[in-house]
């Protein structure tokens, strides 16, 4: 039986485009039609990306201590969340953390720092890190996420070899003032424009679960389409204790899948990345979500733990996906390497890659409890989850 979602996919594959009304209809589809939505959106995903998944790895260069008041953020001004707080990693520390992710299967390293925006000395640091990273790892992609850019900074990053710049719009323009007051929506759009003008690939996405309406989610996606973002990270709110959004639970696994499918219909040929909150909100539907999305972060996030890296890789393999840029034999070898490391650690803990006790994929954490604060990787002496 041909569904309305099949007809929408047919139209897009024939050169048409989804309308705002189409996007709202996807979000409001009954849960009984979820697999029809996934099957139709999955046709667009396979047309442009086959069965590949792009694997990205986050390195938090500078954590906490941010002067901006983004109400959803555990690092923001006024946040009481007990996250790691540290100043800039050194070049060698950055190489160590990035190398862990690249050995774990990632092809893009996302270097992130908290703060309103970088100083010229901060740009100097990232330039040096990028040069060292490119020298050490042939073919690695580097994405910088440093906040609001000033004139000339994007050009310096591009000249140093940075490939992409991430700056999320986070929500619809009509909702922006409700979630942050220390900078404007226009400030964010301006930075994306600076990155594009310098030749950096624009990476910009959103956070779902911030009290926005269906129409505002659609507004945000169409804004990202108009900005021509090459990569669109879709985050699901992680309601950290100590932030204004603590105890905010608006999302279900099926809702999250529909949001990702809506993004695929609106931006059929763009990288749709399942980002923060993936494990907490999608839960058993993570693999289903990858039938419409084509990109994930491996391991942990900026201030919270993700599921064990081996679990990420096995999920991809078990559901017929391959890592972009890696052949099947290389993928199989990578999984065996992770399994061997897990076995070697088994006598000292639960076998997760956290390196110090129980990882969030081992069954020792309730999926509905608060975000697990990251205590490993960058800024610690504990091995990274990669």
From TrEMBL:
Alphabetic keyword roster: 2Fe-2S, 4Fe-4S, Biotin biosynthesis, Iron, Iron-sulfur, Metal-binding, S-adenosyl-L-methionine, Transferase
Q: Which residues of the sequence carry a binding annotation for [4Fe-4S] cluster?
A: 66, 70, 73
Q: Which NCBIfam families match?
A: bioB (TIGR00433)
How does the cofactor attach, per the note? Binds 1 [4Fe-4S] cluster. The cluster is coordinated with 3 cysteines and an exchangeable S-adenosyl-L-methionine. Binds 1 [2Fe-2S] cluster. The cluster is coordinated with 3 cysteines and 1 arginine.
Pathway in which this enzyme or protein is active? Cofactor biosynthesis; biotin biosynthesis; biotin from 7,8-diaminononanoate: step 2/2
Oligomeric state and interaction partners are given as: Homodimer.
Asked if Iron is a keyword of the record, the answer is: yes
Q: Where are the transmembrane segments?
A: none
Return the EC number.
2.8.1.6
Which organism does this sequence originate in?
Answer: Nocardioides turkmenicus
The name on file for this protein is: Biotin synthase
Q: Which domain of life is it from?
A: Bacteria
Q: Which terms does the record give in the GO molecular function aspect?
A: 2 iron, 2 sulfur cluster binding; 4 iron, 4 sulfur cluster binding; biotin synthase activity; iron ion binding
Domain (Radical SAM core): residue spans on this chain:
51-275
Swiss-Prot/TrEMBL cofactor(s): [4Fe-4S] cluster; [2Fe-2S] cluster
Q: Which reaction does it catalyse?
A: (4R,5S)-dethiobiotin + (sulfur carrier)-SH + 2 reduced [2Fe-2S]-[ferredoxin] + 2 S-adenosyl-L-methionine = (sulfur carrier)-H + biotin + 2 5'-deoxyadenosine + 2 L-methionine + 2 oxidized [2Fe-2S]-[ferredoxin]
Family note:
Belongs to the radical SAM superfamily. Biotin synthase family.
Its function? Answer: Catalyzes the conversion of dethiobiotin (DTB) to biotin by the insertion of a sulfur atom into dethiobiotin via a radical-based mechanism.
Q: Where does [2Fe-2S] cluster bind?
A: 110, 143, 203, 273
Return the InterPro entries for the record.
Aldolase_TIM, BATS_dom, Biotin_synth/BioAB, Biotin_synthase, Elp3/MiaA/NifB-like_rSAM, rSAM, rSAM_sf
Is S-adenosyl-L-methionine one of the keywords? yes
According to its UniProt entry, the protein's GO biological process terms are:
biotin biosynthetic process
